[in-house]
Automatic annotation (TrEMBL), chain A:
<dbReference type="InterPro" id="IPR014730">
    <property type="entry name" value="ETF_a/b_N"/>
</dbReference>
<dbReference type="InterPro" id="IPR014729">
    <property type="entry name" value="Rossmann-like_a/b/a_fold"/>
</dbReference>
<feature type="domain" description="Electron transfer flavoprotein alpha/beta-subunit N-terminal">
    <location>
        <begin position="23"/>
        <end position="212"/>
    </location>
</feature>
<dbReference type="InterPro" id="IPR012255">
    <property type="entry name" value="ETF_b"/>
</dbReference>
<keyword id="KW-0813">Transport</keyword>
<dbReference type="InterPro" id="IPR033948">
    <property type="entry name" value="ETF_beta_N"/>
</dbReference>
<dbReference type="GO" id="GO:0009055">
    <property type="term" value="F:electron transfer activity"/>
</dbReference>
<dbReference type="Pfam" id="PF01012">
    <property type="entry name" value="ETF"/>
</dbReference>
<keyword id="KW-0249">Electron transport</keyword>
Automatic annotation (TrEMBL), chain B:
<feature type="domain" description="Acyl-CoA dehydrogenase/oxidase C-terminal">
    <location>
        <begin position="241"/>
        <end position="392"/>
    </location>
</feature>
<keyword id="KW-0285">Flavoprotein</keyword>
<dbReference type="Pfam" id="PF02770">
    <property type="entry name" value="Acyl-CoA_dh_M"/>
</dbReference>
<dbReference type="GO" id="GO:0050660">
    <property type="term" value="F:flavin adenine dinucleotide binding"/>
</dbReference>
<dbReference type="InterPro" id="IPR036250">
    <property type="entry name" value="AcylCo_DH-like_C"/>
</dbReference>
<feature type="domain" description="Acyl-CoA dehydrogenase/oxidase N-terminal">
    <location>
        <begin position="9"/>
        <end position="122"/>
    </location>
</feature>
<dbReference type="GO" id="GO:0003995">
    <property type="term" value="F:acyl-CoA dehydrogenase activity"/>
</dbReference>
<dbReference type="Pfam" id="PF02771">
    <property type="entry name" value="Acyl-CoA_dh_N"/>
</dbReference>
<dbReference type="InterPro" id="IPR009075">
    <property type="entry name" value="AcylCo_DH/oxidase_C"/>
</dbReference>
Amino acid sequence: MKICVCVKHVPDPNLPVQVDPATRRLIRDPKQSIIDPADEYGVETALRLVEEHGGEVVAVTMGPPAAEDALRRAMAMGADRAILVSDEALAGSDVLGTARALAAAIRPEQPDLVICATESTDAYTGLLPGALAGLLDLPQLTFARAVSVEGSTVTVQRATETGYQVIQATLPALVTVTASVGEPRYPSFKGLMAAKRKPIEVRDIAELGLEQHTVGEPGARERVLEISAVRQVKQGRIVVDDGTGESVEEILAFLRSIQVV
Amino acid sequence: MTAQGFALSEEHRMVRATVEELLHRLRPQREAYFHAIFDEMYFPDELWDRMAELGLFGALVPEEYGGTGLGLLTMTIALEAFASEGLGNTMAMVTAMDTMAIVRAGTPEQKRRWLPDIAAGKLCLAFAITEPDAGTNSFRISTLARRDGDGYRLSGQKAWITGVDRSQAMLVVARTIPYEAVIARGLPPRHGLSLFMVDTQAPGLTVQPMDTVGIEGFRQFFVFFDEVPVPEHDRIGPEHEGLAALFDALNAERILTAALCLGMTEFALRQAAEYARERRVFGDTPIGAYQAVQHPLARLKVLQEAARLLTYQAAAAFDQGVPSRQVGLQAAMAKYLASEIAFEAFDRAIQTHGGNGFVKGYHLIQMLAPARLFKTAPINNEMLLNYIAEHALGLPRSY
Ligand SMILES: Cc1cc2nc3c(=O)[nH]c(=O)nc-3n(C[C@H](O)[C@H](O)[C@H](O)COP(=O)(O)OP(=O)(O)OC[C@H]3O[C@@H](n4cnc5c(N)ncnc54)[C@H](O)[C@@H]3O)c2cc1C
Ligand SMILES: Cc1cc2nc3c(=O)[nH]c(=O)nc-3n(C[C@H](O)[C@H](O)[C@H](O)COP(=O)(O)OP(=O)(O)OC[C@H]3O[C@@H](n4cnc5c(N)ncnc54)[C@H](O)[C@@H]3O)c2cc1C
C-alpha cells in the first residue's frame, strides 16, 4: 500500500511563541523549527502499516525550503521518499490554500491512505485535514487512537470524550491520528545516513498546476483580525509552611473540599 | 555541550542530536539504570539494546557489513553524550576497539563473520592483554599461542579483563614467539605478538571474578587458558606481527576513554553548577557566587573544552587514516587530559555538594571510582607522559 503522510515544519514548541504584530502572523525561524511532534505519530502509524502490509511511505510538506528538515526527519524514521511543496507564491496561504497545494501534490501519487495529525502544534486550527479530504474526495476518519488495514478496509478507533467509536471506510481514505497511536520511533544512525540519500521532489505551483489566485496571499480568504495574549489565569495556591503543622491541615482541608481525598 | 572551535559536520551534529533525543527518552528509566549499575554492578541489558537500536555499535562498521561507517568521531560524540548522563558504557568502548582491529586487519571472511553481528549490537566483545606480571609493560606478556596442526593452542593467564561474563568473544593478545626467544634472536620486543578472537565458551577457558569495584556495571576477571584450541581463521592480522592492528585498537580505546571522561566531566560539572546555584549557606548568597567554589569549576570547564578539542581532533585523524603513530600521540594527549580532569571534576563536584556529595542519590560518590580508574587504566597516565616526552619532545626513554 502507498501512504502519504503530511508533516508540517513548525517552530520548536519548546521555545516561546512570537507573533509579528504588524502581519499578525507567527514568526517562523527555520533554524528553530522542527517536524511537528504531532506528525511524528502520523509517520509512526504509516511505518507500522507498511511494515505489516508492505508498500511505501511518502512524506509530504508545504513550506519554505527549510521545511526539508521535517521531511529528512520523517525519512530518517523510515519514510521512503518525500515531496516538498515550496514556492514564494505560497507565502500567506490560509488553510484552504495550504490544502489545495498539498492536495495537488498528493493527488498524482494515488495513495491508499493519507495520514495527518488531528491538529498542528503551531496554528492548530484542525481544519486542514478536512479541507484536504474534501479536495481529494476521500472519506475522513478523525481522532484515531488506533489504525488498522484489512484488505481494502481501514478501521480506526475514534477517540471520544467517553471512550472510542470503531469506524471503517473503504480505501482510499484520509485518517487523522492522535498521540495515542503509539510512541513514535526515533531515528537511528542508519536512518540518518539513509535519509541523506532518499529523494525529495520539490514542486512549485506551476508544476502542481495551481493558479496564483487560489493560493498564497491572493488566494487567502481567511483574515487574521486580531491577535491577543491569553489572559493568565492564576493557578494554584501557595500554602506557606510556618512550622506549626497547620499548613498540612490546610492542604488536607483543601483536598477534601475538592473531593480528592 | 559545546566545543564550538571544532567544526563538527552536519552529520555529526545530527548524530549528537539523535543521541540526546534517546537520552531524553531514557530519562524516566535513569534511576533504575543507576540502581542496576551502582548497586547491583550490572549494566542493564535493556540499555545495551537501546544503544544498539540507535546504531552505536554499527558506527565503526562499514556499510557493506551492515553498519553505517560513520566512524570513530561519531562513536566519540555518542559515548560522550551517554556518559554525560551518567550512562557511560565501557564495554561499548572495548567492543569498539576489537571492531577496529577486525575492520583494519581482518580478512573479508572475518569481516563477514563478525561485523554484521557487531553492528546489530548482538555481540559484546572483551579485550585481554594485561597479565598479573605484565600490565604497563605489555611486551612482557607470556600467554602463548603454540602452533598445533591447522590452528593454535593457547596457554596462560590474563587478569583485570573487563566484562568477560557478558561477552561472546574476546580479542586476546598472545605471544606466538616467547619474549625471551625474541630477545635472544636480537629482534625487537614487539615482534612475536599476535591477536586472536577467542570464544569465551571455548574448552579449556575458565574465568574467575576479581573483587574490584567494577566500572559502569561491568566486572573484572582472571581468565585462564589451558590449551585452548584456536583455529587459524580466528587470528586477526599477520602472525607474529599483530602490533599494527593492536595499535589501531589501542588508539581507538584511548580516544573513547577520553570520550567517556569528557562525558563524566560534563555530568560532574553540570551537577556541581546546579547545586551551587541553589544552595545557600550564609544569608541569601548561593554558594556558587563564592569564587572559591566557582573558580575551580570554571577552570575545569576550560580544561574540559581543551580536552574535547584534543579528543575530537584525535578521532577525526583516526577516521582520516592518519598514520597510527601520529594518531597515537594525539590520542595520548586527549586521554591524559580528559582522565585527569574527570577525576578532578568529581572531586570538585563532591566538595561543592558538601555532605550531600556522599549521599548516594547524587551519584557523585559512586562515580568517583570509575572517574579515578581512567588515570590508571586502560593505560596509566605516567606511561602516556613517557610516550609524549619521547615522541613530542624527543626525550630519551628511561625504561
Ligand atoms: C491569512 C493567513 C496567512 C497565513 N500565512 C502563512 C504563511 O505564510 N506561512 C505559513 O507557514 N503559515 C501561514 N498561515 C497558517 C497556515 O494557513 C496554517 O498553518 C495551515 O493552513 C495549516 O493550518 P493548521 O496548522 O491549523 O493545520 P491543522 O489543521 O491544525 O493541521 C492538521 C494537520 O494537517 C497537516 N498539515 C497542516 N499544515 C501542513 C503543511 N503546511 N504541510 C504538511 N502538512 C500540513 C499536518 O499533518 C497537521 O498536523 C497563514 C494563515 C492565515 C489565516
Ligand atoms: C577496573 C579495571 C579494568 C581493567 N580492564 C582491563 C581489560 O578489560 N583488559 C585488559 O587487558 N586490562 C584491563 N585492565 C588492566 C589495566 O590496563 C592495567 O591495570 C594497567 O595497564 C596498569 O597495569 P598494572 O596494573 O600491571 O600496573 P603496573 O604495570 O604494575 O604499574 C603500576 C604503576 O607504576 C607506574 N609505572 C609503571 N611503569 C612506569 C614507567 N615506565 N614510567 C612511569 N611510571 C610507571 C604507573 O603509575 C603504574 O600505575 C583493567 C584494570 C582495571 C583497574
